[in-house]
Amino acid sequence: MAASYWLEERAEPLRTHRHDRAVDVAVVGGGVTGLSCALTLAEGGKRVRVYEARTIASGASGRSGGFALRGGAMPYDQARERLGTERAAGLWRLTERTLDRMESLAGDALRRVGSLRLAADEVEGAELAAEYEALRTDRFAAEWIDQPGGRLAERYSGALLHPRDGSLQPARWIRRLATATADAGVEIREHERVTALEELHADAVVVASDGYPSGLGALDELVQPMRGQVVATEPLPERLYGRPHYARHGFDYWQQLPDGRLVVGGRRDVDLERESTSEEGTTPEVQAALEGLIRELVGRQPAITHRWSGIFGLSPDDLPLVGPVPRREGLWVARGYSGHGNVLGLACGELVAKAILGDREPELKLFDPARF
């Protein structure tokens, strides 16, 4: 029961190229960021090797709630205030382009059904309304819902619909990305943990670990690991939720899968201190809170078939740390997505790869680790 539901899906063995000598770039981490980076590098003509301590999709990329959202941890109106309209809009357009790229690669692992952010109280309702107005002002697609229907009407007073967001089967998606990466000529070494970056024989090294310890010293201290616990229920006979939902600033999130199963996560705010960890596992306190949320969402307590957790990284300013590591020649990093790694990880892996290939996109400056 402690295993991720997503990882139970049968996977074909990964067939990967083997490089018999040093590579141009070594990538540490076989999740969405590392694979995205490796694929772009290989398409640019580089010899690349990926090191994954476990198996493909076994880390954070296969342990999420399965949300594919545009933007980042900051709501759009706050991003405009903090970053300026031009940079905020650029970030949102980057993630929208990335969702389209994900759709082209993921096949039926991604469903573009939209996402619904819900207002749990008047304060959150005002925040959602402000974000809606900012999105509409800058001509981003968004819809306002005064009163959600069904069981949501009893709990939420308003909602913001992001119509082109998506629902992921994350393990299926990452395994497909790994296959495309291997087919491009990348060597993927599973079950090979890197213990010292200095021992990797490559012209450049990319660390793509999000919230897991990376061995980068001060950059490890900047990114706070956070545990997200998730549960999956038995398939429900009724269709209650047609897209991913989230509320209370992301402390509650859920979606109903095509087979009727409900995947529910969050509630880490019942024990935030213990959830600030890089240790995977579940706790009675958070699990009980998730069961309570399920009863509110369904009206009864369906059987829970899976319980699991994943680790993500919180950055100090809600923006990831992506780019060259200061004072470390040839070393690059991409991590700290603050809960939005499914889309940002794909985008940032590609940004780092393009920079190594000599093409620095403007978004890379926004994420530069040297800002700290």
Note down, in words, how this protein is organized:
The structure is a single chain. This protein has 372 residues and is α/β, with parallel strands linked by helices. It has three domains: 1-6 and 21-110 and 166-223 and 315-372, FAD/NAD(P)-binding domain (3-Layer(bba) Sandwich), CATH 3.50.50; 115-163, no CATH class; 225-314, 2-Layer Sandwich (D-Amino Acid Oxidase, Chain A, domain 2), CATH 3.30.9. The chain is 31% helix and 22% strand. The protein has ten helices and 17 strands. It has helices spanning 32-43, 76-83, 85-106, 122-137, 170-183, 218-222, 272-275, 284-298, 341-356, 363-366, and strands at residues 23-28, 48-51, 67-68, 110-111, 115-118, 143-145, 159-162, 166-168, 187-189, 202-207, 224-233, 245-247, 252-256, 262-266, 304-314, 321-324, 331-335. Helix 1 (32-43) packs parallel to helix 5 (170-183), helix 1 packs parallel to helix 9 (341-356) and helix 2 packs across helix 3 (85-106).
Task: Quickly list its features.
372 residues; alpha/beta; FAD/NAD(P)-binding domain; D-Amino Acid Oxidase, Chain A, domain 2; 3 domains; eight-stranded mixed sheet; six-stranded mixed sheet; 10 helices; 22% strand
Explain the layout of strands and helices:
Layout: E1 23-28, H1 32-43, E2 48-51, E3 67-68, H2 76-83, H3 85-106, E4 110-111, E5 115-118, H4 122-137, E6 143-145, E7 159-162, E8 166-168, H5 170-183, E9 187-189, E10 202-207, H6 218-222, E11 224-233, E12 245-247, E13 252-256, E14 262-266, H7 272-275, H8 284-298, E15 304-314, E16 321-324, E17 331-335, H9 341-356, H10 363-366
Parallel strand pairs: 1-2, 1-10, 2-9, 5-12, 10-17
Antiparallel strand pairs: 3-8, 4-8, 5-7, 6-7, 11-14, 11-15, 12-13, 13-14, 16-17
